[in-house]
Structure formats: C-alpha cells, structure tokens
C-alpha cells in the first residue's frame, strides 16, 4: 500500500475528546439525570441532531441564530445542528404527539452544538439533560420543574448553589402596555441577557416609551434580592400601573410559595431585570449557579406560545435543561467524587500458551454471570500481566495453570488483599461476588 504522509490530527477548535476518567464523570451525571427523569415520570424521547434551520431559529433569539452550525444538505435544505432540545420537543408535541393526553412529561439527553467562543465551561459541543412538562399553565407545573432541578443538584452532592429567578411577564407586560413591538422587546431582552442595562434603557427610550416607564424600568433593573416576599412586594409597587406585569409578579409569588410550602429548600436570588437569550419564554425563568463557577449550570422557564407557533393547539409548557459538562465542572470544583459502586474487574491470565483457549472459556463464563472479565491478549509473562492488572485496578486475577486445571480448579487472586487461593471453577463466580461484599 502506498504510504501517504499525514499530519498529526487534533480535534478541531471547540471540540473535545473525553478520556475514560472524564467520560466516567459525564456518564455519572447523565445516569443521575436519567434516573431522576424516571422518578418524576418523564419519558425519554430521542430527536435528531440535524433539524430544519427554520424550526431551530424561529424563537431562539438573535444570538443563538449567529451561533448555529448551519449548512445546506445535499438535497439543498437549510439545516442546522441542534443548539437545544426545546424546539425539537415543541415540534414533536405540535405534530406526532399532538393527541397525547396532557400533562406530558418528556425527557431528552444528548449532545448539542453552538459556535460559542471556547472558554472555561463553554464548549462548541456540550451535553444537556432536558425535561419538558407540557400541557399545564398552573404554578404547580413551574414548581415541579424548580423542585426537580434542586433535586438533581442535591443528588449530585452540590453545595451552596443558588437559583437566579425572574419572570418574563414583568418586563414584557410593561413594554406591551407601552406599545413596544415584539421585535423591539426581543432586542431589549437580548441586551438584558448580556447585562447591558444602560443600553437596554436607551433601547426602551428609542421605542418612545413614556419617561415614567423609563424610570420604572431603571428601578426594576436594580430590584434584586434573596427574600422573595420583600423583592416581589417592591416590584409589585413599581408596576402598579401595568396590569399584566402585576399578574406576572403574583404568578411568580404563587410558584415560589408552592415550592417553599412543599418543603423544598434552596437559596434564591430574585431579579426583576433578569432575561434569558432564548425568545420563547413567557413566564418564570431561572438558572442555577454554584459559587465556584460564574456560569449557569442549567436554564429553564415557561414557554406557552411555542407549540402553537409550530402548528399545535394552544399548549402551555415549562421546562429546564441541565448542562452536564458544567455539572461535572461544579462537582470537580467542590471536590465531589461520583459515588460509583466499586465494580468487579477480573483479569484472566493463562500461564502457558496451551491454556489461552481456557482463558477465553472462563472469561465467557464470568461475563455470563455479569462479572466484567478481560483475558490476557499480549502474550506476557505472568508477572508482567499481573503488574498490568494491578495498574488497571483489577479487583481479581485468575491464573490458569495446568496442575490446577487437571482438578477443574484455578488460582484466584484478590488484588487488594494480595491473597491467592485455589478454587474449583464451578465456585469461581460465587467466590468473586462474595469477596466483593
Ligand atoms: P440554555 O440556557 O441555553 O437553555 O442552556 C441550558 C444549559 O446548557 C446552560 O445553563 C448550560 O449549563 C448548558 N450550556 C449552554 N450552552 C453551553 C455551552 N456552550 N457549553 C457548555 N454548556 C452549555 C436551553 O437550552 C433551553 N432549551 C432550556 C429549556 C428547556 N427551557 C425550557 N425548557
């Protein structure tokens, strides 16, 4: 074969390989997220990585549109790699699942793609566990999504985290009453999402809102605090001229009261000027944060108009997506090790060439009993093979030798205790199970 000179390849910018240790942590966080979905009754669905650009862009917001991996497929369709799950779920609910009884609880897990500037905790390929509760406009649905998010943080062992909480209905209520068109409202929310409050005030002025309104917005952007009752009372006084903004404040109060009375405890920071980049939110919005990271571990909120936009009937919905990569980073920062059960790991070493087939046969027997087994494949001496088994963290090794085998026995070595015993093959699986407790 002709040898072609190749460069040494690396992953492309923003993309990562996960080596076994990191993969184990990612899978641990994913495992807990999936378990949680089961405990709350969220059924898993799988949606495609490639979707129509138009679907993904419909209400994703300007920033997201700029960051999508977009291309024309060979059929000339404008498509994109999914930057989030919510649009795909809304498409499903508006179409194939439109006649399913409500409420529907759906769960999705997988990789997503955003052409973000790579930096700590911000990647171009990342993973989310996404939970969507469809069909209820009641505050108990919002409360469930908050409770579930808190539950995941607790199960991962995270400490001292807080939830940043707001409500899209407050600012949108004011702006709508001031006749600001939806597109201008969206631009203003994008500025707030980037914490550009002065620019947001200028944008409001440019929409010809009243001077009183500018004053109200200015004060609202500063309304922030840890005590929901105090902050919300203040916000309610501020928006007393704006009917639907008052309703939004009351809705937020109802949600938080349900969570509190349900005995769910987490730290809250209420922010009246909080906005999220995605444009589909209509009610509660929130993001959990750990003190060691100044990036959100997840994000969610209520989006009551999206499913209808995609051709479904009017359908209320609320959901959250947890960033698996960031949860793993937060666990590392807080020095939390995944509580992975100590797994058995057995290496089978034939002590001479004629016994290789016996090693294969024994490895099959162990796997049949759900014991992970690796047979020696490098043709090494027993001592080299034992050294390697030790390095890999094998819990047991089995030495297959001719003398023992004549009596249907092998030597089982407990690698931790450094003890070796001759065991009858028929008792091997039981012995290994038993020695692991
Ligand atoms: P999001 O806030 O865009 O919301 O993303 C949710 C979470 O995904 C973020 O808080 C973060 O943990 C993770 N994430 C986002 N971008 C990146 C990135 N470039 N690198 C690493 N992690 C990232 C949504 O996606 C909504 N669909 C959430 C939702 C579900 N709202 C209602 N239902």
CATH homologous superfamily of the largest domain?
Answer: Bira Bifunctional Protein, Domain 2
The averaged pLDDT comes out at 95
- Write down the overall geometry: elongated
Write out the distinct hetero groups bound to the structure. Answer: histidyl-adenosine monophosphate
Main sheet: strands, sense, barrel: 9 strands, mixed
Strand ordering within the main sheet? 1-5-6-12-11-10-7-9-8
- CATH class membership of the largest domain: Alpha Beta
CATH architecture grouping of the largest domain = 2-Layer Sandwich
Kindly estimate the percentage of residues that lie in beta strands according to DSSP: 15-25%
In words, what does this structure look like?
This protein has 437 residues and is α+β, with helices and mostly antiparallel strands. It folds into two domains: 20-333, Bira Bifunctional Protein, Domain 2 (BirA Bifunctional Protein, domain 2); 346-435, Rossmann fold (3-Layer(aba) Sandwich). The protein contains 17 helices and 17 strands. The protein has helices at 20-40, 53-57, 62-67, 86-94, 139-156, 168-177, 182-193, 197-206, 211-222, 228-238, 243-261, 306-309, 324-333, 356-368, 382-391, 402-406, 428-435; strands at 43-44, 50-52, 70-72, 78-81, 104-113, 125-134, 162-167, 224-225, 267-271, 284-289, 298-302, 317-323, 346-350, 373-375, 396-400, 409-414, 419-424. The strands form three sheets. It has a nine-stranded mixed beta sheet with strand order 1-5-6-12-11-10-7-9-8, sandwiched between helices. Strands 14-13-15-16-17 form a five-stranded mixed beta sheet, sandwiched between helices. Strand 13, helix 14 and strand 14 (373-375) form a beta-alpha-beta unit. The radius of gyration is 28 Å and the shape is elongated. The model has no long low-confidence stretch (mean pLDDT 95). The chain binds histidyl-adenosine monophosphate.
